[in-house]
Design goal:
Elements lengths: L2 H14 L20 H7 L4 H8 L8 H10 L4 H10 L16 H8 L6 E5 L4 E4 L1 H7 L12 H7 L12 H19 L4 H12 L1 H9 L9 E6 L3 E12 L4 E7 L5 H18 L1
Antiparallel strand pairs: 1-2, 1-5, 3-4, 4-5
Helix pairs in contact: 2-3, 2-4, 4-5, 7-12, 8-9, 9-10, 10-11
Length: 279
């Protein structure tokens, strides 16, 4: 691991970012060029001491997971992320068919949607990023491991995950998830992570097995969705999808008709999300 080069690269990338680039307030009396070290640490969900030692060339070799968090916090491009991995002694990561790296442009969009429920998912329905309002709306979804990372797994193996959806929405969403997983498993093959997920769910869930047997493809999301939130109650929302074909990721943004009761409830969720972020 080239500590000097790694330290220099981290510092240069940190200094190239401004608080407004990552959705943070600039505040007064800012003398630091770019972001502060503690701000990067917050964005990367790690301690300031750990990040400071790493940037200062004094820390241990960071794990792949730590590097991925730092790459996201510093809004690195895919090429910059690869460079970071090489500098840290892990070698260039493979460009897998399950990319979790988020394009900086997509992160900038998420930064500007902090008061709106928005979630970025990969092709296996794994949540990569959420706005604070989406966490208040649907709960934290980025802290799962293994198969649980996929909404498809949680939906069929953990029925409590369906609580947000009104009962009549459940059958359609089930079909959407199975259809989407089939598309990925067909492309990636039976030995892929998607193929393993299919085999696990066929064993765990008779409902999944029945839907898989139906062999539906191309089942599309409904643009209008009805939810039942434990705090604000019923919500009638519009779901807008934005696909990043290069990264094979999809951004889902939930909005309500202006002036409607659901719009007022979304505003309340925005406040709840801000409080969670501060807390």
């Amino acid at each position: 691991m080239e500590y000097g080069d790694l330290s220099d690269f981290l510092r240069k990338r940190r200094e190239a970012l401004q608080p407004e680039d990552v959705g943070m307030p600039r505040g007064r009396r800012r003398r630091t060029p770019g972001l502060r070290r503690e701000e990067v640490a917050v964005l990367a969900s790690m301690s300031t001491d750990y990040y400071s030692r790493l940037e200062g060339g004094r820390g241990p070799q960071p794990s792949v997971e730590m590097l991925a968090s730092i790459a996201r916090a510093l809004r690195l491009t895919l090429e910059e992320r690869d460079h970071l991995f090489v500098l840290a002694g892990h070698g260039k990561p493979p460009r897998t068919t399950r990319p979790d790296h988020i394009d900086p442009g997509m992160l900038r969009i998420l930064d500007r949607l902090q008061d709106t429920p928005a979630v970025l998912m990969n092709r296996l329905f794994e949540t990569l990023a959420q706005t604070p309002a989406h966490v208040a709306f649907a709960g934290e979804q980025t802290n799962f491991n293994g198969f649980e990372r996929s909404e498809v797994y949680r939906w069929f193996a953990q029925p409590e995950s369906r609580a947000l959806y009104r009962e009549h929405e459940v059958p359609t969403h089930s079909r959407v998830l199975v259809s989407g997983l089939r598309a990925v498993a067909t492309v990636d093959g039976p030995k892929s992570h998607a193929g393993s997920l299919v085999r696990v769910l066929l064993e765990l869930s008779p409902e999944f097995a029945a839907l898989w047997e139906a062999h539906e493809v191309g089942v599309a999301h409904s643009r209008t969705k009805q939810f039942r939130h434990p705090v604000v109650g019923d919500l009638d929302l519009y779901c807008q999808l934005m696909d990043d074909r290069d990264q094979q990721q999809t951004l889902l943004v939930f909005t309500a008709t202006p002036g409607s009761e659901s719009a007022e409830k979304l505003q309340l969720l925005s406040v709840l999300g801000t409080q969670q972020l501060v807390g």
